[in-house]
Amino acid sequence: MTDALEAARDEQRSALTEAEAKELLASRGLSVPDGETVTSSEEAVEAAERIGYPVVVKVASPAVQHKSEWGSGVGVNVNLTTPDEVRTAAVDIFEAADREGIDAAVFVEEAADLEAGLEVIVGGTRDPSFGPTVLVGLGGITVEVLQDTSHRIAPISTAEAVAMTRELEASPLFDGYRGSPAVDREAVAEAIVTVGEVLDANEEIREIEINPLLAESDRAVALDALVSLDD
Amino acid sequence: MSVTDLFDPRGIAVVGASETSGKIGYEAMQNAVEFDGPVYPVNPSASGTIFGREFVSSVTEIDGEVDLALCCVPAPIVPDVIEDCGKAGIGGAVVFAGGFGEAGPDGEELEERLIEAASEGDVALLGPNTSGFLVPEEHLFATFATDVDTIPAGNVAVVAQSGGLAYAIAFQAENEGVGVSAMVGLGNRANVGFEEAIEYFDGDAKTDSIVLHVEGTDDGRGLLETCRRVETPVVAYNVGEQDVGDFAESHTGALTGEYELYEAGFAQYGVPTVRTSTELLDAGTALASSPRPDGPNVGVVTAQAGPGIAITDRLKAAGANLPSLTEETQDIVEEILPGITFSANPVDTGRPMPEFGDVVAAVARDDNIDIVLVYELYEGGLGYPTDTLAAVVDEVQKPIVFASGGPEAVINEELAELEALGIPTFTAPERGADAVSALVQYAKRNAGPDAAVAGEEVSVDD
Asked: Which residue of A107, A153, B28, B62 is most buried, as measured by CB atoms within 10 A?
């Protein structure tokens, strides 16, 4: 069990923070953006300078599940390119947290170029009847509208996970379409395998969702991750 | 707990046996006396005889070998009856009554008491809330349903979560002259569920395939693991596709429905899945009566273009592979039928002809082909190529599925001859195609680790 899971359980939290979730997945070999959790606006700027612009600045708190809807929309700030923008975003987050009376830190992260890849959702849930299960689908609104997903009972092999991606109606998009580059199907498969293994190995995890996982030509990066724990 | 006491009893007690026609206790007794073994009517408030058997006041008073009790009594007294069964050493019981786990908190409490009585007395209990089971070959009709003795004996075991659907399939089998080795409605699955039933029929000499109707269980993984473990082929009809969640919490939760998990899980664990009860019966029949396919590659031989095209279309939509025939086979076919309409795959002979059986034989012998699907409308002067197929089916040890059309009164007898050879027959092109699709799924899903990926399909030359 990782430290983050242990800490979350001790504090009786229902989920890991995004940074903790990404750390857990990264420790199992998944690619995540370069990022840092900080507790002041100056530290946020320092982190951004180290990471390199553009960056994303997000609220980091166990009390906040839906970051983009939190604090009148100050919870997620994308594509920041200057120290001033980073400082302002961080200050807004700390002020909103004070207003709401919650403990919050700020998560500064390397910005991703969504154009450089295909947005995929990879998830897994502990079903009461089947135990650990995994799914893959195309990310964004497509998954809601078309429900183009593939499922398996976990844990599974990489070959089985590749087969899942091939079952999707959207599978040809992985191979490149109208000039867009082919993406790393194997890396998506590895992410599915990892989600299944983490669920299988940690009874206290109820659900994992990586949405989006950005599939690029030579890797797949978890841009957002949610790890929910048993209540 | 021994499920054998339940499904293969030496004698039967009908608890709540009644002389009043139309009551469950009467109908169950009427069915039970067909059994070739002792049958005891049990009813403390009745005396004399019923169907020539003397009433006994309690199961504990029976002087004879009884393994199965048919409980035709109201729900509230069922737990006491099961307790008595335990004392009497009766190891199997069917509980027809509803009003248990499906009927709110009081019912749940009653079911808990029932399960407790069954565990303490070591009683394998089918139900509650079931219409029972049948084993036609043994004249064992553990049910209150009427006219069940019309259902012929066969080699497909029907195991349905719903008793109603179990009968729907069994009577369809009867309508079509197909038999079942057993038909079981599981009902509430108090202590005999899918796993126990599948394991029992896997070891049953009369059963060559097991077909499941699944609405949802609380141990889906256990069911899948049982299906993988058993030797007998299993096919599943999983109901509930339209139960979709909303996206309130997360996509993963909303998108992972029980239906999706069953469909994915059955594929992962080597179980073909179907969309209708007719397909379930057809797939079960095909798997039970023909050799297991070594691979997913289908050779289609048709005497008429239209049905052949419909079949090919349907097979391809189901993910079947129709590889080219070897040069050798194509040469043989062209020698038999110079200028043949189409001699790759499907092979279309244009019309029935004396050499039709030889064409089927050539395709069946082809190394690229694992499964053969034949379509031929019946032609009076020719009949079916039964003799040729009899020799081929033994030689190649591959499934050969035969679909046809013709006047019922004429073809039924000839189709029965083919079936006796282990050639499943169907009277609609699509039903033949669907049965073959189930064989293809079976081959693909059981081709070893990561079967869905590996395939071992022969490449198609377009």
From this structure: B28
